[in-house]
Design goal:
Blueprint lengths: L1 H7 L6 H21 L3 H22 L2 H21 L1 H12 L2 H6 L1 H21 L4 E5 L6 H5 L2 E6 L2 H7 L10 E5 L2 E7 L15 H12 L3 E5 L6 E5 L2 E3 L4 H11 L11 H7 L1
Parallel strand pairs: 1-3
Antiparallel strand pairs: 1-5, 2-4, 3-4, 5-6, 6-7
Helix pairs in contact: 3-4, 7-9, 7-11, 7-12
Length: 272
């Protein structure tokens, strides 16, 4: 019973120990998630077997097996790096997209997202392609995201142009943006039942107003008939915005600093 007495006499666990265990648990979990369904899973299982065999050889006194595993361990590390170089790059990229790093680089990512969004809206407006883009702010839009087609993709001009092509199955409905990423497409929004809304406005504009009546989201609307750019916010609708005006409003809504010396012709050249 000496081992039990020694176990019970161990020093108390402090908060640093709990933090240490939590960090290791999170890292192990993330690694398992990354290698699930890849070659890394088979290699991890093989590595676990070799480690277990090493300890078993020490316990059973299998000197030859123990010597072989110890001498091959160094070469095994290099072999794993060569075999899993693609998975290692993917893992590092995954950790770089962690919420902490996103928060530290939030302003830069949002600034680039706003630029891509404004250029895309200007292009769709010029071509008179109807579009509905929802920008999530403080109140979440999970219910509407789950009702659409999940994407979780970085905002880009090419992606938005593809989504809102008339022949695209994702054309109908709205795109929902969370931060610097497109969360989902083909999302359906509630229509406004406010009798004061102009009868000239179609379903797309009524859906934008209806959503902003319920939460603090900002919704960009492009008219299919006139190509006019509108911005719905707090149950109201501001029509006839220019790309530059839209950029200023979006940056203010997202809390971004104003950039000095931006040329008005930038969007026009990008659209052309």
């Amino acid at each position: 019973m000496d081992w039990l007495a020694q176990l019970l006499q161990r020093p108390p666990i402090e908060w640093v120990d709990l933090l240490d265990i939590a960090i290791v648990a999170v890292v192990v979990y993330e690694v398992l998630v990354l290698i699930k369904g890849t070659r890394g899973m088979q290699i991890a299982l093989s590595g676990t077997f070799i480690v277990a065999l090493y300890f078993a050889s020490e316990w059973l006194g299998l000197e030859t097996v123990n010597w072989l595993i110890r001498n091959m361990a160094v070469y095994g590390v290099f072999a794993i790096i060569v075999l899993l170089q693609t998975d290692i790059r993917r893992a590092l990229a995954h950790f770089g997209r962690a919420p902490l790093f996103r928060y530290l680089d939030r302003s830069t990512n949002l600034d680039e997202a706003v630029e891509e969004l404004v250029v895309s809206v200007a292009n769709l407006s010029q071509r008179k392609i109807g579009a509905l883009v929802v920008i999530e702010r403080r109140i979440g839009l999970r219910n509407y995201i789950e009702g659409g087609i999940p994407l979780d993709a970085t905002i880009s001009y090419d992606l938005l142009a593809s989504i809102f092509q008339v022949a695209s199955p994702l054309h109908d409905g709205a795109v929902i943006v969370q931060g610097d990423r497109i969360a989902a497409a083909a999302c359906f929004l509630p229509l406004s039942v406010n009798p004061k809304v102009s009868r000239e406005l179609g379903t797309r504009h009524r859906a934008a107003i209806g959503l902003t009546e319920e939460n603090d989201a900002a919704v960009i609307v492009i008219s299919e008939e006139s190509g006019l750019i509108s911005l719905a916010l707090d149950g109201g609708l501001e029509r006839g915005l220019t790309p530059d005006t839209l950029r200023v409003k979006l940056r203010a809504l997202l809390g971004l600093r104003r950039r000095e010396g931006r040329r008005v012709a930038q969007v026009g050249s990008s659209v052309a």
